[in-house]
Amino acid sequence: MKIFSYIRPKSKKFFYEVINKAFDYPEIISFSDFKGLADIWAGSFLYNSDYEYPNADFEEEADDILARCRTLRLLDKKQAYRQALRYWNGINKIFSEFQFDYAVIFPVDCYTLDIIDRIARMHGVKTIAFIGTFITKHARISTRGEYRSIGRTVTDEEVGYWVHKLTDIKFLPDSETENVRKNHKFIYKYYIRRKLIENVYYPIRKIIEKDPWNYHYNMFYLRHKPLKIFYNKNFDDCFLRLNEIKFDPEKTVYLPLHLIPEATTDYWCPNVEETNYRKFILDLIEKSDKSITFIIKEHPAMYGKRELSFYDDFNSIDNVILLHPMDRSNELLQRVKTLVTDNGTVGIEALMRNKRVLFISDNYYYKFHPNAFYVDRITTESLKFPIVQFPNEDFIKPLLEAVFESDFVNSRTGIPNSNPDQIVHGIKQYLRYVE
């Protein structure tokens, strides 16, 4: 059995152990964007003009590939096209030569993984990636955020436990727990750290590794922008607090913002327009009924990371209330009847609290609940979609059937400290279910 393994620094040992235990006698061909780490290095074709030949399959998907990657979006279009084309041809050659059975990769979060996943599917190779989930200490199999059941047997006791936990007013997903106490000192620290990374560390790594096109060394968030673009001493005045606002629940929707840039908007949303998140949300409000009030809450992890002009845009709109990122979603959900989201876990929290949830993008869970509705704009009619009584147990059970116990954390420090046997168990269960 031949396995394609995509690895990054500090993940090689973990991935090799997982693959060797999850598959019978695997022949592993490792691949990496980082030089000297794997059997095959992306630079072997990324810096080779012989791989810049025309490819009809690439041409069909090029616009989507170039639009979705945060790194390619920062480049000159011609340069972005060259890199993506060479990468496509190089990966296609690898898959044509080795005829893999499976590709074990990270969830798609950049153009390199995007191309690997597209070509794997083109060659009929099944991809396996694993990610954390809103169910604490659990993971699931997913490459682009899609739902993949592993057919796990879920007991009534387990369902009841998670229904109780997720409907608790104090519940916070792991993505928010560590961010709700951020202050102005955090903004300074984040800015200085990113400045050092982008202006010192990345240029040095490019020279040392002789790898100037590596996507990781070109992930610029600040782009030489001064701190005043992101922060001033009156920063918190951009927002209102929950106890300061009044609204009519019948004519109001709650729209929580995403952490940006993030795979959830770049790759896990079918609508490529969402990659330009600022314009996407502003356009959504513009084309919606003006009689509807939008309560927009910033994600706590984005505290001090967006340009102040982003908030000025929303505060200039009469029917928008911009809520402070440190206010709790669950407290606001008690007061509203309608939530608007794409694939955020707050949609799950809202559905479990018997709210109407309007989805502006497809996601892995909305089809499991009758109070979830797919829309392309928010109208007064959509605020009247019926809310029916639906057992939380019936909603949560299929979601639990797709997760397995795991302490896996997809980060440079988290992966080496994660338990590979838990991931192995989940992969084996998934393979038994789908085969």
Top keywords for this entry?
single chain; 435 residues; alpha/beta; five-stranded parallel sheet; three-stranded antiparallel sheet; 14 strands; globular
The order of strands across the largest sheet is 3-2-1-4-5
The gross shape turns out to be globular
- Estimated share of beta-strand residues: 5-15%
- According to DSSP, the number of beta strands is 14
Order of SSEs:
EHEEHHHHEHEEEHHHEHHEHEHEHEEHEH
How much helix, percentage-wise, in residues?
25-40%
Number of helices: 16
Largest sheet: 5 strands, parallel
Would you identify the regions where 5 or more consecutive residues have pLDDT less than 50? none
Q: Kindly report the oligomeric state of this protein.
A: single chain
Radius of gyration: 22 Å
- Mean of all residue-level pLDDT scores: 94
Write the layout of secondary structure elements.
Blueprint: E1 2-6, H1 12-22, E2 27-32, E3 40-41, H2 43-46, H3 56-68, H4 70-74, H5 77-98, E4 102-104, H6 111-122, E5 126-128, E6 130-132, E7 138-141, H7 156-166, H8 174-177, H9 184-209, E8 252-256, H10 263-266, H11 277-286, E9 293-297, H12 308-315, E10 320-323, H13 329-333, E11 338-341, H14 346-352, E12 356-359, E13 372-374, H15 392-400, E14 403-405, H16 420-434
Parallel strand pairs: 1-2, 1-4, 2-3, 4-5, 8-9, 9-10, 11-12, 12-13
Antiparallel strand pairs: 6-7, 7-14
Helix pairs in contact: 1-16, 3-5, 5-6, 7-15
